[in-house]
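Ticket #4471: structure output looks truncated?

Reporter: J.K.
Steps to reproduce: submitted the chain below (99 residues) through the standard prediction queue, then opened the result file.
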Amino acid sequence: MKALFVCLVHYTKPYEEVQTKLQEHREYLKKGYEKGILLASGPRIPKDGGIIIGAFEDKDAAFDFSCGDPFVQHNLAKYEILTFEPVLHAEMLNDFLSE
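Returned output as attached by the reporter:
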């Protein structure tokens, strides 16, 4: 079974500045969904960052993914990457976790 990674995205600039790159950020994430490595993503409430859940080869691959994010490239956010093993999970995740 794959390890999962929770990427806590912490905004480093005011949300108004972050919004200027929001569309680019979402387009970047779409590529992760197309590759089959992302499971879910979205803003935290309140909107002081976001959360991305994905399955990467290892923590280095998750870090490399974060470096490609327009939010990171434009110094609007930084990632905190947490690794966990999904010992229990919904059956609907079987295919995603076994790929």
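Triage note (M.O.): checked the attachment and the full token line is present. The longest strand covers residues 4-11.
Status: closed, working as intended.
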